[in-house]
């Protein structure tokens, strides 16, 4: 079976990639293929995704995809953006990150709470690297709801669904998410990249 590495230890991402890529490929993550933490020193999602994908593909010599993603909030001028994982501190605590967002948005009315999830996937294969971007538009809810998914899902409200991302089934999320849209772009180019 062909192998592909998903260059992350984030269990939420791993689950979603396994659902989206699994089947034809043996999908491995950095839980099975250990790798030291990679400093995300880039200033864009693209730069960080490339850093992660190239470091891991060089070390293991296996086709690798990496995901750099985050939440952009309009009234915060796009913050936390590439700093989403460590917004409330270095421990990458989802609950604390959510609390910080809700605090920053205290008193901001619903119509001014527009936000989007952004996902950039970098694919590093045989010395070449490609990036694909996907987004998902929504609103920051007034309080958390639901316990599916990960990260900021409990406060990411989807007006057309009438629910937060964390209230969707994984199957529903995997058909509308920023990660799905980035993955869809990658799949359109899959044969050229993974030949
Ligand atoms: O579907 C999502 N639903 C909710 N929240 C999400 C999602 N996608 C990204 N996010 C948030 C989580 C984290 O706060 C940040 C990603 O940060 P990011 O650096 O890409 O990931 P990470 O450090 O957890 O793992 P790694 O870099 O090893 O892949 O954005
Ligand atoms: Mg990270």
Automatic annotation (TrEMBL):
The active site is at residue 68. Substrate binds at residues 8-13, 69, 150-153, 173, 178-179. The keyword Metal-binding applies. Mg(2+) binds at residues 39, 68. Its EC number is 3.6.1.66. CDD domains: HAM1 (cd00515). InterPro entries: dITP/XTP_pyrophosphatase (IPR020922), ITPase-like_fam (IPR029001), RdgB/HAM1 (IPR002637). One of its GO terms (biological process) is purine nucleoside triphosphate catabolic process. NCBIfam families: PRK14822.1, RdgB/HAM1 family non-canonical purine NTP pyrophosphatase. Belongs to the HAM1 NTPase family. PANTHER family: INOSINE TRIPHOSPHATE PYROPHOSPHATASE (PTHR11067:SF9), INOSINE TRIPHOSPHATE PYROPHOSPHATASE/HAM1 PROTEIN (PTHR11067). Homodimer. This is dITP/XTP pyrophosphatase. It comes from Alteribacillus iranensis.
């Amino acid at each position: 079976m062909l192998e592909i590495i998903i260059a992350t230890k984030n269990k939420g991402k791993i689950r979603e990639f396994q659902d989206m890529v699994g089947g034809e490929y043996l999908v491995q993550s950095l839980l099975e293929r250990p790798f030291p933490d990679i400093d995300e020193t880039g200033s864009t999602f693209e730069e960080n995704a490339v850093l992660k994908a190239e470091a891991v593909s060089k070390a293991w010599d296996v086709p690798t995809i990496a995901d750099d993603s985050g939440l952009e909030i309009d009234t915060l001028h796009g913050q936390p953006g590439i700093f989403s994982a460590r917004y409330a501190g270095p421990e990458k605590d989802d609950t604390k990150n959510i609390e910080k967002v809700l605090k920053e948005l205290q008193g901001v009315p619903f119509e001014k709470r527009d936000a989007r999830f952004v996902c950039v996937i970098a694919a590093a294969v045989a010395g070449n690297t490609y990036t694909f971007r996907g987004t998902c538009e929504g609103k920051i809810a007034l309080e958390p709801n639901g316990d599916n998914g990960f990260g900021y899902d409990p406060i990411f409200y989807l007006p057309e669904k009438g629910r937060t991302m964390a209230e969707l089934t994984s199957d529903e999320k995997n058909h509308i998410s920023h990660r799905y849209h980035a993955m869809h772009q990658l799949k359109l180019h899959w044969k050229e990249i993974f030949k």
